Amino acid sequence: MTERRMMGELMRAARLHAVGDKMLVEDVPRPSAAGTDVVVAVKGCGMVPNLANVLANWETWYPQMPLPPRPAVFGLDPVGVVHEVGEQVVNVRPGDRVHVNPGRSCGACHACTSGAPQKCDYWMLGGYFGYNPNSLEMFERYPYGGFCEYMLAPQGALVPIPDNLEFRQATRLGYLGTAYAAVKKLGQLAGKSLIINGATGTLGVGVTLVALALGVSRVFAVARGVPLLERLRALAPERIEIFSNHDGSTESWVKSHTAGRGADLMVDTLGAVASLDSLSDAMRGVRRGGRIVNISGTAGVLGVDVTWWMDEQMELIGSVWFTTADGIELAGLLGSGVIDISVLQPKNWPLDEINIAISGVASGEGGFTSYLVEI
Ligand SMILES: [Zn+2]
Predict the structure, then answer these.
(1) Ligand 1: distance of its center to the CA of 330 in Å?
(2) What is the 49 CA–ligand 1 centroid distance (Å)?
(3) Hey, which CATH number is domain 176-318, 3.20.130.10, 3.40.30.10, 3.40.50.720, 3.90.1170.20?
(4) What phi and psi values does residue 286 have, to the nearest 5 degrees?
(5) What's the gap in Å between 116 CA and the centre of ligand 1?
(6) Ligand 1 centre and the CA of 134: distance in Å?
(7) What is the distance in A from the centroid of ligand 1 to the CA of 240?
(8) Cα 245 to the center of its chain, rounded Å
(9) How far is the CA of 38 from the centre of ligand 1 (A)?
(10) Most Cβ neighbours (<10 Å): which of 121, 158, 176, 365?
(11) Ligand 1 centroid vs 36 CA: distance in angstroms?
């Protein structure tokens, strides 16, 4: 350990110096808290299944969506203990156990002040990527994601972790929060039926758990592999029906189970490299007047029959990430046991093995495995 590290000026961080390189674990300056910001001593950071794609391909696939400037500390889903608070921080104290919502925005525009920071022109996900060139200004203010020992965060990003969740479990809050925000956009669930396309992935399992907890009557779970679909059905066999879209059309299957009408609602949760055919097939399984929320990472241009859109009064809604308020609501549901995530198995690596971790995220059991780096 160097003298500067012993004096608290440096910390260990995994950094990416150039796209295509391995990450290097090295000493970097440690942040300090001022104003309304806090420093969180990171205990763990969720590893999203999409990370390898982002590191390798993002700037080619989506040149308008900037990665953080290199060398960059990635890490989307950090949890830890509040270490230091700025002089203007209220309501947060050193020692608080928190999840750090990585969503950053300007905090001052109409979108931000009306509780919709995802609509801000500066919106970005810390430790991951931005949504437009303005996001780079947010990366300057909050340069570190969660793959390091200490990170800076605004007080408005903190979600208290309920006492009944371990840190390892709480690193799933980001993707669960994304699922929760999508399910909220579906509206009232009582008596409704819901297609979950990509149901056995990280987002899909989250949507299933949240929708069941909030009272959905029927789930039409669609994915590729039958073993994970069977495991999903076991969560609530009386409410979940499963279908492998390797076996045919999702539209036909759903309509054959709904007297030809289709399901009331749908959430698409497919991954970055999925086929759009699966999405459009599932969409046709939604009934007249239905609502479709998209939280998939799938890229491409989807052909939409605009006559169907208008005549059948379909609602198509995009949903990205979630607000800290959504995170606080979700933490309440987890803390009271309304949503039970004990079925999700953590799989963890130490920070020194981060490169092994990045290539290992496909090795688990779909959305039933939570991948994380422990700090
Ligand atoms: Zn804003």
Answers:
(1) 23
(2) 28
(3) 3.40.50.720
(4) -95, 140
(5) 8
(6) 11
(7) 40
(8) 24
(9) 20
(10) 176
(11) 17
Place of tokens 């020194």: 352
Ligand 1 centre distance from Cα of residue 119 (Å): 7
DSSP 8-state assignment for residue 367: G
- Our CA dihedral for 73, 79, 85, 86, rounded to 10 degrees, sits at 40
Distance 315 CA to ligand 1 centre (A): 26
Q: Where in the chain is CATH 3.40.50.720?
A: 176-318
Per-residue pLDDT of the chain (375 residues; tens, 9 = 90+): 456 666 679 999 999 999 889 999 999 999 999 999 999 999 999 998 778 888 888 888 888 899 999 999 999 999 999 999 999 999 999 999 999 999 999 999 999 999 999 999 999 999 999 999 999 999 999 999 999 999 999 999 999 999 999 999 999 999 999 999 999 999 999 999 999 999 999 999 999 999 999 999 999 999 999 999 999 999 999 999 999 999 999 999 999 999 999 999 999 999 877 889 999 999 999 999 999 999 998 888 999 999 999 999 999 999 999 999 999 999 999 999 999 999 999 999 999 999 999 988 777 789 999 999 999
Ligand 1 center–CA 68 separation, angstroms: 19
pTM: 0.95
H/E element holding 264?
A: strand 263-268
As given in the structure block, the two tokens for residue 51 are: 């990370």
Cis status, amide bond into 71, omega within 30 of 0: yes
Burial class (CB in 10 A: 0-12, 13-18, 19+), 339: buried
Distance 139 CA to ligand 1 centre (A): 14
**Cβ 291 vs Cβ 187: under 8 Å:** yes
109 Cα: distance to centroid of ligand 1 (angstroms): 4
As annotated, the residues of the chain forming the CATH 3.90.180.10 domain(s) are 3-172+344-374
Task: For residue 120, report the distance from its CA to the centre of ligand 1, in Å.
Answer: 4
Give the distance (Å) from ligand 1 centre to CA of residue 90.
21
